[in-house]
Design brief:
It is a single chain. It is built from eight helices and 13 strands. With 305 residues, it is an alpha+beta fold. The chain has a single domain, classed as Glutamine Phosphoribosylpyrophosphate, subunit 1, domain 1. The protein has a nine-stranded mixed sheet with strand order 4-3-2-6-5-1-11-12-13. A hairpin with a 2-residue loop joins β11 and β12. α7 crosses α8. The chain is globular, with a radius of gyration of 17 Å. Bound molecules: aspartic acid. The site of aspartic acid has 15 residues, from β1, β8 and α6.
């Protein structure tokens, strides 16, 4: 089968068309980076990690550099990664001053007997693995500082600001192996120490070679209550196709809990699923030499690479 990588750059109310364009350009680049690895016979884990790392480095996304700020103006990030072959998984939560939380999540998966490391413990583990700790505040940007100031001035502080751009990727290789990865700065104006759905296996990320792989984005507390990623997988296990399962579960969650999200999915047969109940979600996948992408509902553009 043709290898595929499917990437998202966050779901929500993206009002500005210029920003929307930038987010779409970013997911296109991330998908190409991941696909290049798959095309050369690289692993699905390497592909999703590389795609997510690219977006963690891009300040326009809410992950790595450019992550939204807590009420106190700090960056605290979450990430998770999962391999469909043996259901191994790794995640980190409330990590600070690290350029690539997704790589740290992968190290938790591959180098410890745990699934999730938090805060200071995650930082000590990062140091033990030779990961560079950045100077305090290095991941804070002018954009996120201004956004927090605007948010604090404009509304009650419920930790639900409008800055968006959580990132995620799912990939399948030519032998049908699957992986999923997701990374976020969380919700703008959140309380210090808040963990998101993104670091919860089954909510933000899930992969099982027998069924499929999913990465989610949107209102974290809602996604976590619904176990959105695992719901999509279960729905596919019950016989639905990737797109139907993804859209059904997102809509069911929104109906039941009155909040919005998005998800991207690949089935073990290589079917693609893209669904969001938010206004927009940037997404892109590469299959062969075709790049498919969009951000608005019903939008599906195709370009040759
Ligand atoms: N799910 C993330 C969180 O709640 C945010 C997002 O995906 O936009 O932290």
């Amino acid at each position: 089968m043709d290898p595929i990588i499917l990437v998202h750059g966050g779901a929500g109310r993206i009002k500005d068309d210029k920003i929307a364009k930038v987010l779409v350009e970013g997911v296109k680049k991330a998908a190409k980076i991941g696909h290049n690895i798959l095309a050369k016979g690289g692993s699905v884990l390497d592909a999703v990690e590389a795609a997510v790392k690219y977006m963690e480095d891009d300040e326009n996304y809410n992950a790595g550099k450019g992550s939204v700020l807590t009420l106190e103006g700090e960056v605290e990030m979450d990430a998770s990664i999962m391999l469909g072959a043996d259901l191994s998984a790794g995640a980190v939560t409330v990590v600070k001053d690290i350029q690539h939380p997704i790589s740290l999540a992968r190290m938790v998966m591959e180098k410890t007997s745990h699934i999730l490391l938090a805060g200071e413990g995650a930082k000590s583990f990062a140091v033990s693995q030779g990961i560079q700790i950045l100077p305090e505040g290095a991941l804070v940007t002018e954009r996120t500082k201004n956004a927090l100031t605007k948010y604090l001035a404009s509304q009650e502080h419920k930790g639900d600001g409008h800055e968006l751009g959580t990132v995620g990727a799912v990939a399948i290789d030519s032998s049908g192996r699957l992986a999923a990865a997701t990374s976020t700065g969380g919700r703008e104006g959140k309380l210090r120490g808040r963990s998101s759905d993104t670091c919860i296996i089954g909510s933000g990320t899930y992969a099982d070679d027998n069924i499929g792989a999913t990465s989610t984005t949107g209102h974290g507390e809602t996604i976590a209550k619904f176990c959105l990623a695992h719901s999509v997988i279960k729905s596919m296990e019950g016989g639905k196709g990737a797109n139907e399962a993804t859209n059904d579960c997102v809509q069911l969650m929104t109906k039941r809990l009155n909040n919005t999200a998005g998800a991207v999915t690949l089935s073990s047969k290589g079917e693609v699923g893209i669904g969001f109940s938010t206004e927009r979600m940037s997404w892109c996948y590469q299959k062969g030499d075709e790049l498919h992408f969009g951000i608005d509902h019903e939008e599906h553009k195709i370009e040759k690479c």
